[in-house]
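Ticket #4471: structure export looks truncated?
Reporter: QA, pipeline team
Priority: medium

Steps to reproduce: submit the single chain below to the structure queue and open the exported record.
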Amino acid sequence: MRCIRDKLSLAIGMTALATELLYAGRAREGARLASEQMALLESIADPTTIMGLAFIAFVNWLCVGEFGEILQWSQTIVELADGDPAKGAGFGMGSPLAIALAWRGTARWWLGRPGWRQDIHDAVAMARRSNPETLSGAVAWTYGFAMQYGVLRTSDSAVHACEEAVQTAQRASSDRALGLAGYALAVGLLNRDAAADRRRGLELMMQTRDIWLRKRALFLIPVTDVWVARETARRGGLDTAVSVMRQAVDELRQAGDLFYGVWGTGVLVETLLERGTPGDLIEAQGVIDEVAALWVDDGSVLREIMLLRLRTLLARAHDDEATFPDLLGRYREMAESLGYEGHIAWAQAMLDSRV
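Actual output as written to the record:
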């Protein structure tokens, strides 16, 4: 019995180190430690602790692209909860089931598995009846991720849910909850068409970075730099934006951050193509080739659709009528087959631009 208690204490203590590694941008080490921690908890058969602590493992695995692990463990927690939203509550999370559904949904759309949309809906609905940390985590790890990657469009309902999470976190005076919800809301607003929404989103992104991220989650600083630079580009500051994006993407690459790094690389390529000098087109081609070579095929449909989108944009920039229509058709068909709303809209915008 004492041996089990010692193992349990060790497993719980590993959470602090895993969190520290994550926040410091050392996700590779954090992911390895998270795997060891979950294996230890599994060996002592402590479902309550597994359910309460898994979310830190999920974030570490997210950064390095271990979505198979996320899918497996989120499914395990869903089964352990057996429909009880509060079962295993602790360590800051009021509903492990809501969090597990959020992460299962994200893993499903990353890997192209069915059921992700229902998971997202159920996670947020359940989190609304829980505590501020659960609600902020749920909206960040569902709507925030899905809007960032073009899986969902920035609908009024998604933005409203993020607004609700921000207000709930403010009332609770929870910095962590406010940071998560604030980031998700900023992502939604920065993806809107209205200039007023994007202006507010930019302000919120910078506030989140300066108030919360610089104190705790340093690994997200380069991500916010890309968001800010993207808005700078939209306002005409392409040279400044490209310079900032290059540095931020390089930092993410050095940190081994696949999830945010791939997204940031895509934004960099789009901005290079928008500026459109001959050197930019050459650089964009090199970046796309590098992503295709370095990003190991893990069965991710996100990998395929992201690369297909970038290659389509590059063909358009080259006025390559021999390949652009085919690439655009394939891109649009894939987006529609997967139900990725943002990608469907982006494909349609490219099609409309040809008319």
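Status: closed, not a bug. The export was complete when the record was re-opened. Leaving a note from the reviewer for reference: The chain is about 80% helix and 0% strand.
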